[in-house]
Specification:
- With 331 residues, this protein is an all-alpha fold.
- It has a domain of 69 residues.
- It has 11 helices and no strands.
- Helix 4 crosses helix 5, helix 7 packs antiparallel against helix 8 and helix 8 runs antiparallel to helix 9.
- The protein starts with 6 loop residues before the first helix and ends with a helix.
């Protein structure tokens, strides 16, 4: 039996526990909800901190890429000025010829002598034949080197996207960049093969890959080689997926090739019309000369006729240049 003095205390304790239990039952969902909100707010704040740190990393990467692009742009401007005025040795090298400077001068002398002999044998005077000899010695080797140079650049542009695809497939297969370059140097078509052989040789001598690729653009001053050098330079300084970047570059190069073919197809009609218009006056003049030589001989025997011929040649030249400018699309 409990003492009568303890009974009020037990009643108070039981009443307090009952009231406390009712209060917990009523307010517990609110407390739990508040704690879940707190946890959610804490998680959002942590995610915001992570996002801010990732944003800072992204800004740092963009800043690094921008600085690299500015450096490359400055280097490209300096090298563009240099590539726009190649030396005689550089032009011969870009043409794929093995001539030295002395060989080029010997070819100029031989061309000049041959032009002089041909003009002299055709019955022209010594002074006129000498003029033809000087023109042939200066122009014929220059035109030959330029023709070979343009043809080599054209073959390089046609084969270069395949070489970039080889690098992309090699990188996706796990090969390093140097091995991919060696594969191209061994298996690609000329002139891509010889240019990548030079890159591999530069790397063998200890030159970094970005500098070796920059020298490719110096040897082959084409937009395709410039794009390739920029991609390699950015990746070597800022990191990133080289296979993805080169894959996008390959797509760009092939789209440029398609655009070039489309422009050529669209401008073929205009080029044919310009060729017909340019040749037609000479054909008509030749036909008139053979049918009525006395009628045409006035243009060659009188002062007025010679002035007319000079004026016609001047206006024909201007017209041909204007038509060439109108149908020569650059992209």
């Amino acid at each position: 039996m409990l003492a009568p003095s303890l009974f009020p205390m037990m009643v108070f304790a039981l009443a307090s526990l009952s009231i406390g239990g009712v209060a917990v039952t009523v307010f517990y969902p609110q407390v739990v909800k508040a704690s879940s909100f707190k946890r959610r707010f804490e998680s959002i704040a942590a995610f915001g901190n992570q996002k801010s740190s990732s944003d800072e990393q992204g800004r740092d990467r963009r800043r690094s890429v921008e600085e690299t692009l500015r450096e490359l742009e400055e280097q490209q401007k300096a090298k563009t000025r240099k590539a726009g005025r190649p030396t005689l040795t550089g032009r011969v090298r870009q043409a794929g010829l093995t001539w030295t400077r002395n060989t080029y001068y010997a070819v100029c002398a031989g061309s000049g002598l041959a032009s002089y002999l041909i003009a002299f044998l055709l019955g022209l005077g010594p002074l006129t034949a000498l003029g033809f000899g000087l023109a042939g010695g200066l122009l014929l080797p220059h035109l030959y080197v330029n023709t070979k140079r343009k043809g080599r650049f054209k073959r390089f542009s046609a084969e270069f996207p395949n070489a970039v695809d080889v690098i992309v497939r090699g990188l996706k297969a796990g090969l390093p960049v140097s091995d991919c370059l060696r594969v191209i140097a061994a298996e690609a078509q000329e002139p891509v093969r010889s240019e990548f052989i030079a890159i591999v040789q530069d790397q063998t001598l200890g030159m970094p890959i970005d500098e070796a690729v920059q020298r490719l653009w110096e040897r082959v001053p084409l937009p395709e080689a410039n794009f390739f050098a920029i991609v390699i330079g950015i990746q070597s300084k800022t990191g990133g997926s080289l296979s993805e970047a080169l894959g996008n570059l390959s797509k760009v190069l092939r789209e440029r090739k398609k655009m070039q073919a489309k422009i050529k197809a669209m401008s073929s009609e205009a080029k044919s019309s310009a060729g017909i218009i340019g040749v037609l006056p000479f054909l008509v003049a030749g036909a008139v000369y053979f049918t009525s030589p006395d009628y045409m001989s006035l243009l060659f025997s009188t002062l007025t006729g010679k002035i007319v011929l000079v004026g016609c040649a001047l206006w024909m030249g201007i017209g041909i240049l204007v038509m060439r400018k109108m149908i020569n699309f650059d992209f």
